[in-house]
TrEMBL record:
Subcellular location(s) per record: Secreted
Key word Secreted present: yes
Primary residence: secreted
InterPro entries documented for this protein: 6-blade_b-propeller_TolB-like (IPR011042), MRJP/yellow-related (IPR017996)
A Pfam family recorded for this sequence: MRJP
GO terms under cellular component: extracellular region
Keyword hit for Signal: yes
Family: Belongs to the major royal jelly protein family.
Superkingdom field: Eukaryota
Transmembrane regions: none
Name of the protein this chain belongs to: Protein yellow-like
Signal peptide annotation: 1-15
């Protein structure tokens, strides 16, 4: 039967209550699925038993991380941080009565074969764009939490056209001069379906963090680096959740993208938001800057003049998700909280807590929207997983859902430029745009 556990919505400061509110009627978050350990729909009972006996399947080592929605399926990523993860991408039907459903490997068991570089090796996150294309981040390196991580295959972008139903993998390995196969960690992405389709990807490599840009039209990629905004900071590396403490100095992690807007010179741009996991800050940069390949060639610091520090949060954030109107949803890990921010107002005063529960909201990882106005959230107690303290007697993974009436940023309005686009170096910077907004706000 369905779960009917509701997550409390809590009041926020009076100053925040004065901020503009989204017009939609909101619903409390409800637990719709939960698992102690993740199991699969095996090809046969004997295959499951063989996998258990050979340690190909170790239930407590299977972590649910990413989530996305397409038509009637919820797609989940299962990164192979430890041994014993038989599939790294799977799905469940969205509408069912089982509250702990078994996962179906996607596209198939064969397409999740460990060591086969035509198959998926280590999927941390996915995105599904407005055209029904699934964009998959496959790190290629497995066992990242073991003593001997194994770079079995090149880090790659993998695409699947879900509309056809054929579910064929199209793999595009990232070149070694962009990412180091032994150190890169492709963490999260947003997809920009303009001008040939771009993906902006966070690489929280411990030695070379940055944002990777992949252009689908010619399969070209480059990387932009900014140590100040993309690196972890010591004061935010310690996480305390319900009496458990873990030290995780993780670099640039969460990423989101806002709606299209017209610049002062009447070209179309978008704002990309990002944050290191181990930081209290959130940063912004224009997509036109990330698209400027020449800035990637200039190396560290080239994009620094274009980066805007929007301010601080009450706690650290893992995944973030933007809706089509410019509302950002994000977790506050240390506070067991889900928050939102209307990006048309100042981040420092516009953040709102929409749910808090220390029992049910233990490490918000990723968000997604379905096509019916629902927001889904993955909660996975990652702090226990990285410390090897997963108890199979407790619920470790939950999916929460709330009706918001909203839809994903990928379905945002398309604007038409009145002038042709030109290089980011001559375009107004995000800093200039925010300055104009601030002056207008003061005048009002």
């Amino acid at each position: 039967m369905k779960l009917f556990v509701f997550i409390a919505i809590v009041a926020v400061a009076a100053a925040q209550d004065k901020q503009p509110r989204p017009p939609q009627h909101r619903e409390q978050f409800r637990v719709v699925y939960e698992w102690r350990t993740v199991d699969f729909e095996w090809e046969s009972p004997g295959d499951r038993e063989t996998s258990l006996n050979s340690s190909r399947y170790i239930p407590q080592n299977v972590l649910i991380s990413g989530i996305n929605f397409y038509k009637d399926n919820i797609y989940l990523t299962l990164p192979r941080m430890l041994d014993g993860v038989p599939a790294t991408l799977a799905y469940i039907p969205a509408n069912q009565n089982d509250t702990a459903p078994k996962l179906k490997p996607f596209p198939s068991w064969k397409d999740n074969t460990l060591g086969d570089c035509y198959a998926l090796q280590f999927v941390q996150n996915i995105e599904i764009d407005r055209n029904g294309i699934m964009w998959i981040l496959d790190n290629g390196r497995v066992g990242t939490l073991t003593q001997n991580p194994d770079a079995k295959c090149p880090p790659s972008i993998v695409l699947i056209d879900l509309k056809t139903g054929e579910n064929k993998l199209e793999r595009y390995p990232l070149p070694a001069d962009v990412v180091n196969p032994s150190t890169t960690y492709l963490n999260d992405l947003v997809v920009d379906n303009r001008d040939g389709d771009f993906a902006y990807i966070t690489d929280n490599s411990a030695v070379d963090p940055g944002i990777i840009v992949f252009r689908l039209s010619d399969k070209k990629s480059w990387k932009l680096r900014d140590t100040k905004s993309m690196s972890s900071v010591p004061e935010a590396a310690l996480f305390r959740i319900n009496g458990t403490t873990v030290n995780l100095p993780v670099n640039v992690d969460g990423i989101a993208m806002g709606p299209q807007f017209l610049t002062e010179d009447e070209t179309v741009d978008r704002t990309v938001y990002y944050c290191p996991l181990s930081s209290y800050h959130i940063y912004a940069i224009n997509a036109s800057v990330l698209r400027n390949e020449s800035l990637g060639l200039k190396g560290e610091g080239a994009i620094r003049p274009y980066v805007v520090d929007l301010g601080t949060k009450a706690s650290q954030t893992d995944g973030m998700k933007m809706d089509s109107t410019g509302t950002l949803f994000f977790g506050l890990i240390g506070n067991s909280t889900i928050a939102e921010w209307n990006t048309t107002v100042d981040f420092r005063t516009g953040q709102r807590t929409i749910a808090r529960d220390p029992n049910y909201i233990q490490w918000v990882d990723r968000f997604t929207f379905d096509d019916r106005g629902n927001l889904y959230v993955v909660v996975n107690r990652l702090f226990n997983f990285v410390k090897n303290q997963v108890s199979v007697e407790e619920v470790n993974y939950r999916i929460l859902r709330s009706y918001t009436g909203l839809k994903s940023y990928v379905f945002g309005e398309d604007l038409m430029p009145t002038k042709p686009p030109h290089a980011a170096a001559t375009a107004p910077t995000l800093a200039a745009s925010l300055l104009v907004f601030a002056l207008a706000h003061l005048l009002v």
